[in-house]
Task: structure prediction
Amino acid sequence: MKRSQAEYQNAESPGSCLSRILMTMLLVAGAMVVLGAATSTRTPARATEGCAVSAAFPDEILQWCDLITEHAATNGLDPDLVAALIWQESGGNRLAYSRSGAVGLMQVMPRDGKASDFMCPKGPCFQDRPTMVELRDADFNIEYGTRYLKKLTDKHRGNLREALREYGPIDVEYHYADTVLALYHRYRVR
Result:
């Protein structure tokens, strides 16, 4: 079909059409950045300065990078080991709650909830532990969990397998420790 002279005069040149397309793309990209910034609840951990956790870990773990880095350093632990433990324990869910009553990112047994039913010879096994509410706070949970893991590591003279066996559920023995160590070796910075 042929165009009339009027249609040619009203038609845009290829250059101006391209300009409109590019301008539209820039506006859309700008809107996405603004909307992304407005709805984002965190800066990606990979971009955070001072993150000592391997970028190979999933985003569910990397979102806690600053806290893992801080508390691992305070307790002389490898941040990738702490990240592997969190990945195994909670998958990065700060509100995780296990069947046995463990709470939070590092699945610490609290003094209340289901855990209060566990009895030891001298009374409730976890009476000196924090509460469930305290352990749902990511910073508190990672601080407490790394301090506890450091205590176990020292008790077992640096033997991570023994420390992790004791950290994990009672009924799984070395399976838990081996799983965490496998995650650690898979994701850690080389």
